[in-house]
Design goal:
The complex is a heterodimer of chains A (342) and B (270). Chain A is an alpha+beta fold and 342 residues long. Helix content of chain A is 26%, strand content 35%. Chain A has helices at 42-50, 72-75, 92-102, 107-120, 136-148, 166-183, 194-200, 218-223, 228-233; strands spanning 4-13, 16-26, 31-35, 57-62, 65-66, 78-80, 154-158, 186-191, 203-208, 211-216, 238-245, 248-251, 254-256, 264-269, 274-278, 284-291, 296-302, 305-311, 324-329, 335-338. Chain A has a six-stranded mixed sheet, with helices on both faces. A five-stranded antiparallel sheet of chain A has the order 13-12-11-14-20. In chain A, a hairpin with a 2-residue loop joins strand 1 (4-13) and strand 2 (16-26). The longest helix of chain A is centred in the middle third of the chain and has 18 residues, at 166-183. Chain A is globular. The two termini of chain A are 42 Å apart. Chain B has 270 residues and is an all-alpha fold. The two termini of chain B are 39 Å apart. Chain B has one domain (22-28, 50-260): MetI-like fold (Orthogonal Bundle), CATH 1.10.3720. Classes of the chains: A alpha+beta (342), B mainly alpha (270). At the A-B interface, helix 2, helix 3 and helix 5 of A face helix 7 and helix 8 of B.
């Protein structure tokens, strides 16, 4: 069992607080993404787990044992870095073989394992090449193979796809997920790209200012964001001024349930939850219609504010720029926050 | 019509040739041609050339002894400088980046003190504390190492930054590699080019260094040549020219080797 528990970890850099009472439990064999904007502390958390830095306070428990006293080289976790960090003086094979040599694995087993991993990452024909002779995607594959060469209990991925172009990024993302599932390694994936986190993870921890704002499955985070930060960071959200009338909240043309503590607020509505009905008396005016392949994105103006709706192609056939439309929402229980929280 | 840029470039090359090449040609003529200048004509300009003066120089026991000493000092200076600077620069780059401004300052500081002041200061101190320190000619190794710090430090530091030594150390740790193994298996092989260029620079500089050796009364090759030239002028000039050509060849070879490895001279940080 290699579950990971960050227990009230705090990390100060001088007066700056990178992590503040950071707690996160990761189950054995699970892939958890730590998602957040730059400076939120996600890399600090990963580097504490890797053993590169020590927290100011708190405890880190892996498989039931506190590991803060264990130096990085003794932890035995595989790690993949944004900058690849392959050893420039070693070929592809030698980079993958290096951890096995350090562990004094015999030559025959080493060669067998290196060949297995080269096949696994489809790099057998590049075995004798040096890092500078490989593309970014190829280098990152080699880094991944090197990280899993010793079959580590935990795999740490520090924005491994950030330096790659879009096509390679998507491909390698799927390969990482497939490899992680096949090997069953507990994996922590740090990223600032919400799409990446949603696509690859069992669960996502959204971070802000050194703390976890919300932890949940990608679907849960998207459909039930805990607050405006999560709603804004994970996917696109329309922020629509709303008022409470009686017990119900009026959001665009719909009445929905919402908090009872305040009377005016901002409702966070996903673009696909907005329904458009052509109406000469409608409150919204269509400003732009963009065809995005599998769906259509409609940009509208409502009392000077911009509202975005994503529609099926067939639903948008009768719409045109300048047309007045009525807007309703499908979500019966959207997130509504007090205006004061914005 | 010739552009101003082209004219400036041509002018630059003419000046460069006039400043460097002509004195060297004159030196070569004096050293290797036996016809005196006042008898030189267009008919005999290619006559009387030979390496007799070099033979005279190498028959002198003092030349051989001082050359061997200079070569030994090259080797000891390279060894001492690398022994101190490579681990220290690596440690600062990887584990103590806050110390970097101090180390950079310290390496430059040696050039703020003129050799005369350095030698006089050190000599005055060590004569009182360890009188034997200045008796061996290899004392010069310490002065030369200090003197070469700025160049060697920049070459090593530039290469360490180029390979991302800090990231590589973390990658090495993540696969179970300790600092000593990391130093020998990752850092040293990746510093080859900068160590090579540094060694070439140290070799060239130490082989021609005069001030420290002269002030400390050590008979290195340049110091010996100075007195040797007064009795054997042609042989002395021949030897000086040979040293100059050898130095240029060594540096040229170093640069060519780096280029073959895809490295620019500036990649060393010098």
């Amino acid at each position: 069992m290699t579950d990971v528990q960050f227990r009230n970890i705090t990390k100060h850099y001088g007066t700056e607080v990178a992590l503040s009472n950071f707690s996160l439990n990761i189950n054995s064999g699970e892939l958890v993404s730590i998602l957040g904007p730059s400076g939120c502390g996600k890399t600090t958390a990963l580097r504490i787990l890797a053993g590169f830095i020590q927290p100011t306070e708190g405890n880190l428990v892996v498989g039931g044992h506190g590991i803060l006293d264990l130096p990085a080289a003794k932890r035995g976790y595989g790690m993949v870095f944004q900058s690849y960090s392959l050893f420039p003086n070693m070929t592809t094979s030698e980079n993958i073989e290096f951890p096995l040599k350090l562990r004094k694995v015999d030559a025959v087993t080493r060669a067998k394992r290196v060949n297995e991993l080269l096949d696994l990452i489809n790099m057998a024909e590049h075995a004798r090449k040096f890092p500078h002779q490989l593309s970014g995607g190829q280098q990152q594959r080699v880094a991944l193979a090197r990280a899993v060469a010793l079959e580590p209990p935990i795999l740490l991925l520090d924005e491994p796809l950030s330096a790659l172009d879009a096509t390679v990024r998507d491909q390698l993302r799927d390969e990482i997920r497939s490899l992680q599932k096949r090997l069953g390694i507990t994996t922590v994936f740090v990223t600032h790209d919400q799409q990446e986190a949603m696509a690859i993870s069992d669960r996502v921890a959204v971070m802000r200012s050194g703390q976890v704002e919300q932890l949940g499955s990608p679907r849960d985070l998207y459909q039930n964001p805990k607050n405006s930060f999560v709603a804004g960071f994970v996917g696109i959200s329309n922020q629509i001024k709303s008022t409470k009338i009686g017990d119900a909240w009026k959001v665009l043309g719909s009445s929905v349930s919402g908090p009872a503590e305040f009377n005016t607020g901002i409702a966070f509505i996903r673009p696909e939850d907005i329904k458009i009905t052509p109406s000469p008396n409608g409150i919204a005016v269509i400003e732009e219609i963009s065809f995005l392949g599998s769906f259509v994105r409609v940009f509208m103006s409502v009392d000077g504010a911009r509202v975005i709706a994503d529609l099926q192609i067939s639903d948008a056939e009768n719409l045109a720029t300048g047309q007045q439309v009525e807007l309703t929402i499908r979500d019966a229980n959207p997130l509504i926050e007090s205006m004061g929280n914005k | 019509m010739i552009s101003v840029g082209k004219l400036a470039r041509t002018g630059f090359w003419i000046l460069l040739i006039g400043y460097f090449l002509l004195p060297m040609l004159a030196m070569a003529r004096f050293a290797f041609q036996t016809i005196p200048t006042f008898l030189l004509t267009t008919e005999n300009v290619f006559q009387g050339w030979g390496f007799g003066s070099l033979t005279v120089a190498f028959q002198d026991a003092g030349v051989i002894k001082s050359t061997i000493l200079s070569l030994q000092l090259c080797a000891t200076t390279i060894a001492l400088t690398f022994f101190v600077l490579v681990p220290l620069t690596t440690y600062v780059e990887v584990s103590a980046p806050k110390l970097k401004p101090w180390l950079t300052g310290a390496t430059v500081a040696t050039w703020l003190v003129p050799p005369v002041a350095l030698v006089v200061g050190v000599a005055a101190t060590f004569r009182q504390v360890i009188p034997s320190f200045l008796t061996s000619p290899f004392t010069l190794t310490f002065f030369y190492s200090l003197w070469m710090l700025p160049f060697t430090y920049r070459a090593i530091d530039g290469q360490l930054r180029l390979i991302g030594a800090k990231n590589l150390f973390e990658a090495a740790q993540s696969v179970g590699c300790g600092p000593i193994t990391f130093f020998f298996k990752v850092i040293l092989p990746n510093l080859k080019s900068s160590l090579y260029i540094s060694a070439s620079l140290i070799f060239a500089a130490v082989l021609g260094e005069f001030t420290f050796a002269s002030l400390l009364l050590k008979q290195t090759m340049p110091v010996y040549l100075w007195s040797f030239q007064s009795s054997q002028a042609r042989a002395g000039f021949a030897l000086a020219l040979l040293v100059m050509v050898a130095t240029a060849l060594i540096l040229g070879f170093a640069v060519a080797r780096m280029r073959r490895r895809g490295l620019n001279f500036s990649a060393t940080g010098i």
